[in-house]
Amino acid sequence: MKATGIIVEYNPFHNGHLYHAEQARKKSGADVVIAVMSGQFLQRGEPAFADKWTRCEMALQNGVDVVIELPYVYATGQASDFAKGAIHLLEAIGSESFCFGSEQGAIEPFLNSYALLTAHRAEYERLIHEAIQTGISYPKALNNAYKALTGSDAGFADLSQPNNILGYHYIEAAKNNRFAIRPLTIQRIAANYHDPVNKDLTIASATGIRKAFFEEGSLEELSRFMPAASIHSLVSFHELHGRFGSWELFYPKLRTIILRERPESLKRFAEVTEGIENLIFEAAKKEAYFEPFIARIKSKRFTRTRVQRMLTHIYTGFTWEQLRSFEKPAYLRLLGMTETGRHYLHAQKKNIELPLVSRAADLNDAMGGLDIHASYMYLSGMGISDLQKEYSTPPFYLASKPAK
């Protein structure tokens, strides 16, 4: 059986994600679609809207055959680390290709960009360093350095676009590690990451969907943007827990942690740097709600996403020492599978390069322990009393696809 991989968050699963899964299968000619999915915390430094089991269920009901959890250390990392972890997992599980959505829509510009930056690495690093010295953010410095090398040549990928940036790093991870996995891309359609919901369309960004829910408080109003199975899963989640994940919900616990730690000890947490710990502490003293709190911290140099990743690590207790101790994923954590996915895993079991783990009890190394702890912190922030859910929840199994 031939497999293709996709790298996802499904926060939540919407019609654009359905299109991606369908097109990945079609473009690759694969029998099986494997999703590497972030767990309880996400790459832009946020708690997930719904827990990883709910999001896994949505994926398997809508075109995905296997869901593997991306470990916390990679799921909450900067783009290059996020990509590195995900591509390692897809290579290890035997995926012949990976397919990402991009603003570019064609793979050749990404390959051209990779070749250019590899050939001119020293100059690129120098340009980045010089740009950072002017006080701009790291992402802006990267983009300025890249533009200086490429000029106006249309043969290179536009790395000012968020999905193009991730796509480039996926290719970089595969090429740098000399993996056999083949890159593919499809055109991202209709809605960009930050776009609000447009009720004249049927595709909206996950960000727009979450924002619309928190403003309007109704999932029914958003049903045109998500498959029916996704709406059903989210309704069930909300009925059970009475809420969805957000920093506004988690902020009281985060604020308590910050004020307990004090500035000098905040520096030990991953990504907290350049004296920003003092700003974080002072903002926590002054603000009782998350939005005014983060507004006091973010700046041109420290983007909202970068600050949120710091806050995620403070909240979970993830330190610089821990971050530096991991080189690559140590296991494949199975969250769920369809019958097709089960057949694939059975056929590939002798070829899979990492331990395939289906129970939290078998995560007996430092990386697995971190995943379990992060899940505890997520469940606690959600007000879920049963923290043993991490141990008691088996992989989701979908024996047959639901009727359309």
UniProtKB/TrEMBL annotation:
Record GO biological process: tRNA modification
Catalytic activity: cytidine(34) in elongator tRNA(Met) + acetate + ATP = N(4)-acetylcytidine(34) in elongator tRNA(Met) + AMP + diphosphate
GO cellular component terms attached to this protein's record: cytoplasm
Subcellular location: Cytoplasm
Keyword set, alphabetical order: ATP-binding, Cytoplasm, Ligase, Nucleotide-binding, Nucleotidyltransferase, RNA-binding, Transferase, tRNA processing, tRNA-binding
Protein residues bound to ATP: 7-20, 101, 163, 188-189
GO MF annotation: an example: ligase activity, forming carbon-nitrogen bonds
Keyword RNA-binding found: yes
EC category: ligase
Parts forming coiled coils: none
The protein's Enzyme Commission number: 6.3.4.-
Homology family: Belongs to the TmcAL family.
Functional summary from the UniProt entry: Catalyzes the formation of N(4)-acetylcytidine (ac(4)C) at the wobble position of elongator tRNA(Met), using acetate and ATP as substrates. First activates an acetate ion to form acetyladenylate (Ac-AMP) and then transfers the acetyl group to tRNA to form ac(4)C34.
Name of protein: tRNA(Met) cytidine acetate ligase
Organism whose genome encodes this protein: Planococcus massiliensis
Gene name of the record: nadD_1
